[in-house]
TrEMBL record:
One GO term of the biological process aspect: galactose metabolic process
A Pfam short name: GDP_Man_Dehyd
Keyword Cytoplasm appears in the UniProt entry: no
Organism: Cryomorpha ignava
NAD(P)-binding domain: residues covered: 5-327
Assembly description: Homodimer.
UniProt pathway annotation: Carbohydrate metabolism; galactose metabolism
Gene: galE
Protein name in the entry: UDP-glucose 4-epimerase
Length: 339
């Protein structure tokens, strides 16, 4: 099996990518420092794929550690780099933490991969690079606006690093996947979003309120220029997002052209925060305690993807519905309660 270095592989998105890699015939080599994930996730991945998973506990900001892992594993043929802090609100409050970790990890991992002769590099980027787009849906050619948060700015910087690195090493193959809003959990209910402490994302907070862990869900702002006044996002099932990484690897391995390619990974339609909450209540047959609050710093009013380029060039498209994602998210939360 071809080995793929998977940084941040014990996290929410990384764990689903690990499963997708095994299903596609690759061997994930997980690197994680468990600063924002739990060791139990490794066991859960193994339970789904029915085999042992190789993992190394290491800080991706430490170049020597990453280089050592690549040398130990010997036959790695590609890298998927996810390891980063990702909470928009927290990044506004602690910008230095985000600059140090997200940009530091990027330079460390891409340098270690390059010095080890690894070419195929997939980066976990974000739709936050677009800032507040003037036209919806956004395409890969949409101009970048000023990032709304330090988190978003780190993604812009990391993409610039890839751009400059491609010029310096033209034989490299790189893909940047601009994620929209991943939600849901694996259909098995064995892995899903596992926030440490208070959730920063809508759906895990919603499921915790539904489970009685938290008193109420606050919608931040009801006066945006959208149909119902709440923010609009492109919510994509995490299993679909994971599949896009496998498609990106195959795209590079089957394509003889060395280049940096960029793809939006979303469903192609926007759903408001209120619509997500209403849909969650409908599909899971329950009522959730909801309140409205003031707008939150760092939040973009509306953004959703045009994913036609990924559909066309990667042969990828989102398969799961928003309803599926909200059912799977609640199933995951219920399984957590039973542990």
């Amino acid at each position: 099996m071809k080995k793929i270095l998977l940084t941040g592989g014990a996290g929410y998105i990384g764990s689903h990518i690990a499963v997708a890699l095994v299903d596609a015939g690759f061997e994930p080599i997980i690197v994680d420092n468990f600063s924002n994930s739990d060791r139990s996730v490794i066991t859960a991945i193994e339970s789904i794929v029915n085999r042992k998973i190789t993992f190394h506990e290491a800080d991706c900001c430490k170049f020597d550690s990453i280089l050592k892992i690549i040398k130990e594993e010997k036959t790695i043929v590609g890298t998927i780099h996810l390891a980063a802090y990702k909470a928009v609100g927290e990044s506004v409050e602690q910008p230095l933490k985000y600059y140090e970790n997200n940009i530091g990890a990027m330079t460390s991992v891409i340098r270690a991969a390059s010095e080890s002769g690894l070419s195929n590099f997939v980066f976990s980027s974000s739709c936050t690079v677009y800032g507040t787009p003037e036209i919806q849906p956004v395409t890969e050619e949409s101009p970048w606006q000023a990032a709304y948060s330090p988190y978003g700015y780190t993604k812009q910087v990391c993409e610039r690093i890839m751009h400059d690195f491609q010029i310096s090493k033209p034989n490299t193959k790189q893909v940047s996947l601009r994620y929209f809003n991943p939600i849901g959990a694996h259909p098995s209910g064995k892995i899903g979003e596992l926030p440490l402490g208070k959730p920063n994302n809508l759906v895990p907070y919603l499921t915790q309120v539904a489970a009685g862990i938290r008193e109420k869900l606050t919608i931040y702002g009801d006066d945006y220029n959208t149909a119902d006044g709440t923010c609009v996002r492109d919510y994509i099932h995490v299993v679909d997002l994971a599949a896009a990484h496998v498609s990106a690897l195959r795209f590079m391995m089957e394509n003889n052209t060395s280049q940096l390619s960029v793809f939006n990974i979303g469903t192609g339609y926007g759903v408001s925060v209120k619509e997500i909450i209403d849909l969650f209540q409908e599909v899971n047959n329950m009522k959730v305690n909801v309140a409205y609050g003031a707008r939150r710093k760092g939040d973009v009013e509306a953004i959703y993807a045009n994913s036609e380029k990924a559909n066309r060039e990667l042969g990828w498209k989102a398969e799961y519905s928003t309803k599926d994602a909200l059912k799977h998210a609640w199933n995951w939360q219920q399984n957590l309660q039973e542990k």
